[in-house]
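Materials and Methods. Structural model of Heme oxygenase-like protein. The 346-residue sequence of Heme oxygenase-like protein from Mycena sanguinolenta was retrieved and submitted for structure prediction as follows.
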Amino acid sequence: MFPTQSTTSMLTRYWKSTLPSSKGLGLLTPTSHCRSTKSISTILTASISNCKKHYVDFEKLSGDIAARFQHGMEEINHYAIDNRYGAPLSKIEEELRELIERPVAIPHEDDLVARLINDPISSRAWRSLITNKFCDRMNTAPASDPQMKAGFRRYMIQDFFYLRRLSTFNAERAVTAQDIKTYTDLADRIRRGVGYALDQLSVLTSQLGVPASVVFQTPLAAVTARYLEFLIEEVKKRNWVLSLVALAPCIQSYFTIADNVAKAGTVDKNSDWYKLFVSQHKAFEQSALKQRALLKANAKLWAPYYPVARIMFITACGFEQLFWNLGLIGLSVNLAADTIPQLDNT
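The predicted structure was written out as tokens:
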């Protein structure tokens, strides 16, 4: 979930040795599909080299930033700069500047994320997520609390399974690819996805002291399996804009929760929770805004399907909340109201 420099350096050296034409390739390299016309002969080179134009500054996301957060930002970057999808990068960046420079109390109707957060129907799911029981307990628990330390490790292990499965899904998609552009794109995403999973594993073993054998012997939680099923099915049956809505609760809540905790001032700054989550994510408001700007610039692609987007957002919020609740297993906490969302088959 949170990359380490040693793991990143190791993978970078490996990729450089196996891909001689790469230039500075690493886990945090921006995706390769620049908004420019390329001949087929340059596609492979482009897929393993730095793109001069990028939307997400991955260098600023380096360090102990959640791999799942980075995975979501990779998806945003991919669609923002690939000329096969939606609004041009210049339009998206214009929307981003407006969100930064002229924040408004009442969100514009084209600002999908803000609408969903404030919508009377979906706002309840959002509020439940950002005030979930696990994060609430972590905000006041001492760093030495054995139950909360174990809960955070339990959450992190399931995050590893999450990242590993998404890489497998992209590999399955690559097997059925019908053109070189799609295949190299997926190969690049698989490479980065496996890197994120390795980063997560490294943090579990080196920073949280969880033996690798324990990680691999831990069963996949039911909520993890259902959450992955939901995300994968949405990618299969929705347009690309709607598939990004399913990632919104993760990206938006990571920043919001960390920012709220930091401002409250009650968290033990010696805890793993603070060091590996709060201290890193509280500063990434602009990353959250970048998702909003991308969706705002492509409003015409989701506007006809707003009711569907709302259902997706509510469902993803529910899964994110249940994901955090994994840290509360074994504690005397009433979780009766937190049930696995029913998947929408429409």
